[in-house]
Write a structure and sequence with these properties.
13 helices; 318 residues; single chain; six-stranded mixed beta sheet; 12% strand; disordered C terminus; alpha/beta; 10 strands
């Protein structure tokens, strides 16, 4: 029987903590003698949000586990407790497979487990993780990363993706799929967290592009060029590029493509329009062009995105 230890302490995210307990400590799937033995390990009674939890064991039990799960760390501006970091490092040195859920990656990074490795965390915190731990190769475009004995995932639902991935590794696809059906979640999701990153227009401000953004958003179906944008903004193309980088961090055409893709996402979520119609409405021209740019930017084809994120069912066929 595989032992899974969930490391808990004050300041962890209760959703990821509960999710790990549900997957690895719930009713067995398949032969009862092959499921997991779950241990919740902490320094004593801990509080996660509104919830109070009584661990089964101390942190010393982590070193005896086959797999250690580190749930999300709520406040990334606060260093995780040294005793937690030390216990996770010791468990890894003892041979445990260590997986972080969401911002639990900051604990693994503090323990040195991600140095020289590819890793991920919630998209809102990938830049902070990269800046704080420059030896970590942070990938912001995936749902989880499996380096063998060290795994990291992004937030919330992607924590479930990683947990099911671990079950798949340990017990095979059939068991993982059965568990996913029981939990009413997809057994596997295509793509990466680029699907979930919002890309809003910068808030109105006194910067020189404040009037240009809404003008562009009303004309996403049109074949706009950098010269068109520069003319509307009343500046040269070179100056336009400088302002765009200062305000958005992207070139004018990069920003425009993101807005077209975001509009395509909204139409895929909320309408029955064909891909050809959406391509025209977003200024992509053809379905082929939309599919190529959408797949490259979001990580999945438009049809797969629609199946995952559709906000209302299609009307019944006559």
């Amino acid at each position: 029987m595989t032992t899974v230890a969930v490391a808990v302490t004050d300041g962890m995210l209760h959703f990821e903590m509960a999710l790990a307990c549900e997957v690895f400590g719930g009713n067995p799937v398949g032969p009862t003698d092959a499921w997991y033995d779950l241990a919740v390990c902490g320094p004593g009674p801990v509080r996660a949000g509104r919830f109070r939890l009584e661990p089964d064991h101390g942190f010393d039990q982590l070193a005896r586990a086959d797999t250690v799960i580190v749930p999300g760390w709520a406040d990334i501006d606060v260093n995780p407790p040294a005793e937690l970091v030390d216990a996770v490092r010791t468990a890894h040195e003892a041979g445990a497979r260590v997986a972080s859920l969401c911002t639990g990656a900051f604990v693994l990074a503090a323990a040195g487990l991600l140095d020289g490795e590819r890793a991920t965390t919630h998209w809102a915190h990938t830049q902070v993780l990269a800046e704080r731990h420059p030896r970590v190769e942070v990938d912001p475009d995936v749902l989880y990363v499996d380096n063998g004995r060290v795994l990291t995932s992004v937030g919330k639902a992607a924590a479930m993706d990683l947990c099911l991935h671990l079950v798949r590794l340990d017990h095979g696809s059939s068991v993982a799929n059965t568990l996913a059906r029981r939990l009413v979640v997809p057994p596997h999701r295509d793509g990466g967290q680029a699907q979930f990153v919002t890309t809003p227009v910068p808030a109105p401000d006194s910067h020189p592009l404040a009037g240009l953004f809404p003008w562009v958003m009303r004309r996403l179906d049109q074949p706009l060029t950098v010269d068109d944008l520069a003319r509307q903004a009343g500046m040269s193309s070179r100056h336009l590029g400088r302002h765009f980088r200062a305000v958005t961090g992207a070139t004018p055409l990069q920003w425009l493509l993101v807005q077209r893709i975001r509009h395509a996402q909204e139409l895929l979520e909320t309408t029955d329009d064909t891909v050809d119609t959406i391509a025209a409405a977003t200024g992509m021209g053809t379905a082929t062009t939309l599919r190529r740019n959408f797949n490259r930017t979001v990580g999945v084809p438009p049809d797969a995105y629609r199946r995952t994120f559709r906000s209302r069912p299609s009307p019944a066929s006559p």
